[in-house]
Recover the amino acids of this structure.
């Protein structure tokens, strides 16, 4: 079964063809990073326009790379929630149009669920049941995943998402957009124990996250207590930037790894999926690998290309919806 998947929830336009849920025949991603760079963040209206321009070429390229035509496709899938509403509408409308035009059934996909599924691509067997940690620009969530379509929320952020914290702290340190990869790089030259930021554990048993206080702690550390984020930042030395980046990153990684292992123990599972843009963080990957190994837990970390937004995870997950006969009508609505 071959499925064409479309992903446009935020600022990447992506189309992919995946066979039987696991074999990625193509995965084309047109990123808008350069377009949004000068604004220091994604501008929704501009993102929608860029999707409109990129969508059809990206779909054509995904088919060409897979050496297939629309006649070889069995189903069309697209993300319908959550994300930027304008961005979602473009991908979903393109998918509906293709489905209608070629007489194919449509499958609506939840973006967060597809991030979990990214770890299943190109693997022989499905890893469920497991604990799934999804850390991206919009989410920091822990799930007990019983199957590709069955996820129970066991912990979530009470304020900022992990990726959002990376992006905001990078901006505070004057590091280039997008912030996550910038912190990752700067941290390489810094000392993770240079600044002892308080770990936001919340409580001994809590599986929820909170990164907003940490962001404020970084602000006060670099600009003084009670500093205003809107005021012009003082010049920071390269050494200070690297040390603060490394210390901040270590703090976030400690909490993410600690709570995920705590969840695995609480639910008695020995497998963990990590997904979402922040799963591309090298320190997070290394720490998960070290600590999971030490506690006999298998860690499933998708390759970098499947961590950030992509359509392969959408087309892959859609296979399980098709198998279950769960299709969407052409009246499926996008939800922000
Ligand atoms: O999953 P994603 O591509 O889009 C959303 O669904 O939000 O995640 C984007 C987020 C951004 O906040 C970005 O800064 C973060 O992932 N990110 C990273 C790294 N690469 C991307 N954060 C930390 N370290 C990285 N290497
Ligand atoms: Zn995402």
């Amino acid at each position: 079964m071959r499925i064409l998947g479309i992903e446009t929830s935020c600022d990447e336009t992506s189309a992919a063809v995946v066979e039987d849920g696991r074999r990625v025949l193509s995965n084309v991603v047109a990123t808008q990073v350069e377009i949004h760079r000068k604004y220091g963040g994604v501008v929704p209206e501009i993102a929608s326009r860029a999707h409109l321009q990129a969508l059809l070429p990206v779909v054509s390229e995904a088919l060409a790379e897979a050496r297939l035509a629309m006649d070889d496709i069995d189903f069309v899938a697209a993300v319908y929630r959550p994300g930027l509403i304008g961005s979602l509408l473009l991908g979903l409308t393109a998918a509906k149009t293709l489905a209608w035009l070629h007489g194919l059934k449509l499958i609506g996909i939840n973006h967060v669920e597809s991030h979990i599924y990214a770890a299943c691509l190109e693997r022989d067997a499905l890893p469920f049941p497991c604990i799934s940690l999804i850390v991206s620009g919009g989410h920091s969530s822990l799930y007990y995943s019983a199957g590709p379509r069955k996820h129970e929320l066991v912990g979530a952020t009470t304020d900022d998402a992990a990726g959002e914290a990376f992006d905001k702290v990078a901006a505070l340190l004057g590091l280039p957009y997008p912030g996550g990869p910038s912190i990752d790089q700067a941290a390489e030259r810094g000392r993770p124990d240079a600044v002892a930021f308080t770990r936001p554990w919340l409580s001994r048993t809590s599986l929820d996250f909170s990164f907003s206080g940490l962001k404020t702690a970084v602000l006060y550390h670099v600009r003084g207590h009670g500093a205003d984020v809107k005021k012009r930042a003082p010049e920071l030395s390269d050494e200070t930037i690297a040390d603060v980046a490394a210390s901040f990153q270590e703090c976030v990684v400690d909490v993410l790894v600690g709570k995920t292992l705590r969840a695995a123990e609480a639910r008695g599972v020995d497998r963990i999926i990590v997904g979402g843009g922040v799963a591309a963080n090298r320190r997070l990957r290394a720490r998960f690998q070290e600590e999971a190994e030490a506690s006999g837990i298998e860690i499933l970390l998708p390759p970098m290309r499947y961590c950030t937004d992509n359509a392969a995870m959408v087309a892959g997950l859609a296979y399980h919806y098709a198998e279950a006969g769960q299709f969407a009508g052409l009246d499926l609505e996008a939800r922000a």
